[in-house]
Amino acid sequence: MRHLLSTQDISRDEAVRILDTAAQMAATQGREIKKLPTLRGRTVVNLFYEDSTRTRISFETAAKRLSADVINFSAKGSSVSKGESLKDTALTLQAMGADAVVCRHQASGAPHLLANAGWLDAAVVNAGDGMHQHPTQALLDAFTMRRHLATHLAGGAARPDDDVADGTDLAGLRVAIVGDVLHSRVARSNVHLLATLGAHVTLVAPPTLLPVGVQTWPCDVSFDLDATLRDVAPDAIMMLRVQRERMSGSGSGGGAFFPNPLEYTRKYGLDPRRLATLAPHAIVMHPGPMNRGLEISAEAADSPRSVIVEQVGNGVAVRMAVLYLLLSGDNSEGTTL
Ligand code: CP
C-alpha cells in the first residue's frame, strides 16, 4: 500500500485488512498508555486547503498516538494566499522530509496529482477532495457498522458488538444513504467501499441532488425516503449534510439550487416519526458536521441509536491503521490504494 486515494481502488481483502488493523489499534486506545512507538522518527504533514474539524484533528491524533512528528499546514495563513502553487508547496514539504502527506483540497483530483506528479516521495492520503472522494471517512463508517452490527452480520447469533472476528466483511448489510448525494464525497466513497464489502446500498435523494451517471454506481436509487424505510428496512441509515456552500444562492455559484428547507426536511429529514420506524437494531449515522433541524432532527442525532459521536472516535483508530500500513514498512504489495 503506497497511497490511499480512493475507495474505488481498494479490494475486499485490502479493506478488511485495514478494518482488522483498525480494530487492533482501537484495542490499544483503551490502555493507560495509548501511545505506540511504531512511527517514531517519521513525519506526517496535514495539508489542508479546505476547512475541517474531525478529519484534521483525528489524523493529528492518530499520527501522534503512533509517535510520528506532525506538521499542520492550513492554506489560510500560508504562502498559498500569495499565490504559491500546489507543486511548489509539495516541493517545500519534500524538502522538509515529509513521509506522509494527508491532503484535503477543494479540487477533485488534487491528492492524485500530489501522489503521481513526482514532486513527493511521501505517501499521500486523500482526506477529502472536492466532491470526489473521502476514503478514510468511508473506512471509519464501515468500521462503525461492523462493530455495531456484528450480531446482525452473524445472522442473529449472540455475539457481543465489539467481538467482530477478523476477516469479516459487511455482506448482506442494508445501508440507506440519504440527502445531498450530488455534492457528497462521503456518499461516493461509501457506495464503492460498501459494495466491495458486500453491503447493499440505497441512495435516497431529490432528483436535483443526484449526480449525472448515478445509475452506473453499484447501488439502488430512490426519491422516496418513507418508501425506502418501509421496503428496504435499512440496518444503517446515513444522513448527509446539505452542502449549502456548494449550491447557488449561497454565493458559491455551485451546480444546484439550495432546496426549500421546510420541504427538504419534510421529505428527506430524519425526524422522530421516521426514527421510530427503524428496525430495533438499526443505527443512525452522519459524517458531520450536521445541519440540525434540516437533514437530521436533534431527537435523531442525540438518540440512543445514533453512533455519530462514536464515528468520530473510530476515525482515530482507522487513521492510525492507514498511517501504520502506509509507513511502517509493511508494504509488501507496494500498491496504490
Ligand atoms: N466528516 C468530515 O470530513 O468532517 P470534517 O469536515 O470536520 O473533517
From TrEMBL:
Keywords: Pyrimidine biosynthesis, Transferase
Residues of the Aspartate/ornithine carbamoyltransferase Asp/Orn-binding domain: 263-326
Binding-site list for L-aspartate: K82, R185, R241
EC numbers, comma separated: 2.1.3.2
UniProt name for this protein: Aspartate carbamoyltransferase
Annotated GO CC locations: cytosol
Biological classification of the source: Bacteria, Bacillati, Actinomycetota, Actinomycetes, Micrococcales
GO biological process terms held by the UniProt record: 'de novo' pyrimidine nucleobase biosynthetic process; 'de novo' UMP biosynthetic process; amino acid metabolic process
Known function: Catalyzes the condensation of carbamoyl phosphate and aspartate to form carbamoyl aspartate and inorganic phosphate, the committed step in the de novo pyrimidine nucleotide biosynthesis pathway.
